[in-house]
Amino acid sequence: MIQDKSLTSKNLYSIVVSKEEDILTARKKARETAKVMGFNPIDQSRIVTIISELARNIYKYAGDGKIIMEVIKDNLNKGLSIQAIDNGPGIADVQLALEQGYSTSGSLGAGLPAVRRMVDEFSIETEVGKGSHIKLVKWI
Ligand SMILES: Nc1ncnc2c1ncn2[C@@H]1O[C@H](COP(=O)(O)OP(=O)(O)OP(=O)(O)O)[C@@H](O)[C@H]1O
Ligand SMILES: [Mg+2]
């Protein structure tokens, strides 16, 4: 990911997720950031959903972690980089976790597949017993 060196820390937001209400805080920050950046209303909603799903997964499966949002630029575009980081149990089978309908909690299993569909770049680094690091980018 190419970052503009002129960007300062005001372009980076880190939100700790350890309580259920932190999901709401993350959603609000996502809405505000997406709007200020100039994403259209549909993409603003997508970004809120993405952050919401990632924060909820952290809260539910890892207990705590953080969401990092960063405004990034390459030569042509501006975008939002989103990372979800936790030191939770990790994901044993990432391919499976990305399948629609797969859930280890009896939920819909729709979160990660939806997140992947809504972004331009998506990767998961995870290790059982160590945690998960989900990185994605959505360009304007
Ligand atoms: N941060 C995480 N740490 C550990 N496991 C995770 C994490 N995020 C997701 N998973 C695993 O991946 C599975 C799929 O996640 P996904 O968000 O797609 O579905 P879900 O959370 O089960 O259901 P839904 O999001 O639809 O309510 C989860 O059931 C869980 O086993
Ligand atoms: Mg989920």
Could you say what the CATH architecture is? 2-Layer Sandwich
How many alpha or pi helices?
Answer: 4
Number of domains: 1
Strand order of the largest sheet: 1-2-3-5-4
Rg over alpha carbons: 15 Å
Average pLDDT confidence is 93
Q: What gap, in angstroms, lies between the N and C termini?
A: 15 Å
Morphology call: globular
Category from helices, strands and their pairing: alpha+beta
Ions, cofactors and other ligands present here are: adenosine-5'-triphosphate, magnesium ion
Largest sheet: 5 strands, antiparallel
Beta-strand segment tally:
5
Relevant CATH superfamily? Histidine kinase-like ATPase, C-terminal domain
**What percentage of the residues does DSSP assign to strands (E)?**
25-35%
Low-confidence runs of at least 5 consecutive residues: 1-8
Q: Could you state the order of secondary-structure elements as H and E? A: EHHEEHHEE
CATH level 1 class label: Alpha Beta
| Fold-level CATH name | Heat Shock Protein 90
Fraction in helix = 25-40%
